[in-house]
Amino acid sequence: MSVLPFQRASELPAEAAGATRWLVEGLWSEQAVGILGGEPKCCKSFLALDLAVSVASGLPCLRRYPVRQSGRVLLFPAEDSLAVVRRRLQGICTAAGAVFERLPVEVITAPALRLDTETDRARLTATVESLRPVLLILDPMIRLHRVDENDASQIAVLLSFLRELQRRFGVAVVLVHHARKDSNGSRPGQALRGSSELHGWGDSNLYMRRRGQQLTLTTEHRAAPSHDDIPLELTEAGAALSLTITAGPADVAAAVAAASPLERVRQALADLDAPASAQRIRELCGMRTSSVCESLAALAGQGLVVRDDRGYRLSRPQAA
Fold first, then answer.
1. Half-sphere exposure of residue 196, counting CA atoms within 13 Å on the CB side?
2. DSSP 8-class letter at 66
3. At what angle do helices 289-301 and 261-270 cross, to 10 degrees?
4. Do residues 62 and 188 both lie within one domain?
């Protein structure tokens, strides 16, 4: 019998200290699986489609969060008609400045997809293998199975399959899922319907909530800082609908201050229109020079920052 592959710990691949590799900066880590959750009518699908447009186009999600790896997106929208999906994607492209006709978002048009059946798991695997998307969005989970969501052993089978897809093909997976009604008194992750396996499964999780007319977004990551109650609104420009962040400058500054040194340096560079010296970045971030230099070196090592004779600047997102 063959043994499992193994490797000495000291020989495992190393990453820069404190570095988080992002698919969408601050929202979804690279090749992460996770939940986009919320009660009904909280615009979960709009956020999922905004993620799809941003990753496919390389443009910032919600016009705020930079994309670090762009590429093809595979989407299964189980509850909305294909005409509605097209209209929403086209509207988000208008808001984001993306060319809809060139957008590499592939939509699964099958009337049903059952991940609790071996046949449909094989079909989805074959589709992912053929298209090699960087992001797979399944919306919503309730339409993907007929198992008992409260039974951890049954839910674990579905989640293990999606984790296997992620590891085999290097694809990030967003699973849209409902929260319990009237769950505003619970922590977002604990408000999800069904087994706690769902909350624990995610590397990156996003939660939408509505309090009166106010929509808010909470981010949660396994290996990066999280942020609560980012205010959003669904805005209309002609026939185009899209989500917009309504946080003011003070809110943004507070979020940056709470971020890791690496993220603070990256955000400072993202806010500048021209290259900046390490000293200027230190002033903007309120950090020690040594911390700024270490962060710049780590970001440069990831290919996110370049330096020329004028100073440091962010590199352009990779093309799809």
1. 2
2. -
3. 80
4. yes
> What is the number of domains present in the chain?
2
Beta-bridge partner residues of 172: 135
Per-residue pLDDT of the chain (320 residues; tens, 9 = 90+): 788 888 988 888 776 545 678 999 999 999 999 999 998 889 999 999 999 999 999 999 999 899 999 999 999 999 999 999 999 999 999 999 999 999 999 999 999 999 999 999 999 999 999 999 999 999 999 999 999 999 999 999 999 999 999 999 999 999 999 997 766 556 666 789 899 899 899 999 999 998 878 899 999 998 888 888 899 999 987 778 999 998 654 454 455 445 567 777 887 888 788 899 988 888 777 677 888 888 898 888 878 889 998 999 988 643 33
Same domain? 48 vs 192: yes
Report angle CA 60, 63, 69 to the nearest 5 degrees: 10
The verdict on 216 and 261 lying in the same domain is no
Angle between the N-to-C axes of helices 278-285 and 261-270, in degrees from 0 to 180, rounded to the nearest 10: 110
Take residue 291 and report the two structure tokens written for it: 């911390």
Residues contacting 157, CB < 8 A, separation 6+: 116, 147
Are 109 and 78 in contact, with CB atoms under 8 Å apart? Answer: no
Say which residues have a Cβ less than 8 Å from residue 314's Cβ, sequence separation at least 6. 66, 266, 269, 270, 304, 305, 306
